[in-house]
Design goal:
The protein is of the alpha/beta class. The chain is built from eleven helices and ten strands.
Amino acid sequence: MSKLFIVPTPIGNLSDMTDRAVETLRESDFILAEDTRHSQKLLNHFDIKKHLISYHKYNEKSRSEEIIAEILEDDKNVALVTDAGTPCISDPGYELVRRAREAGIEVIGLAGASAVTVALSVAGIDTYQFAFYGFLPRKKSELDEALQKIKGNVIKTFVLYESPKRIIGLIETIKGHMPNADMCVCKELTKLHENTFYGTIDSVMEQLNSHEDVERGEYVIVGYNNDYEEKEENSAQVSLHGILFDKLIHKDYSLKEAVSEITEEGLASKNEAYKASLEIKKFIENY
């Protein structure tokens, strides 16, 4: 039976590549890579000689259909890698996995490196619940809107990605929305020049501004929103039901789609939105 393997690759230190990941890449019929030139260096390091096929966010939808057809026709085993870390986490792969599952192809995920989990593990910030947002919008109005949703999320711990040229500006903007936030900003995780900047948002700003190589490397931000204001339960429940009804009526969503969007927008936790949707479903059935 054909299989699709989701294979994490190191986010910096090549020693983090697992034996299972190397074995899987060697045994796959071909490998899908976000950047074939980048992934070829990884394959060369581990002496893996396999055909690489370009698979990135600009051709993800069109190429997914071709790949699924080839897997089914020739009963092949295929591996998906990204430039660094785990595929599908703010990287291409979702479309391929969805289509593979719909086609009855077995999807197997491997454990391995992820910038999200590494950052959370060293942050010193509550990680029992967290919301991951990836890269936030660049446009000022959209960025402010996104940060307001993060601020209003009942899940107070948030994780973001940011590029080196924009890190100072982003932290300054976060401060405008959440001036009492605690933060751990991680730079170049697992690499030779790894750094973490920890403390209040004011302290982290000072540390970043005094760091001479602040505009080099990639960043993961773990923050804790101390500015969240608890709403009264009854009014929150009423507004949540109202938001769900609005999406059902005006957007013609299913309950599942409405719950998913509310969760993504940070308006409620997944459990809260799901509970409200069950109550609405019961109301509709009895109406």
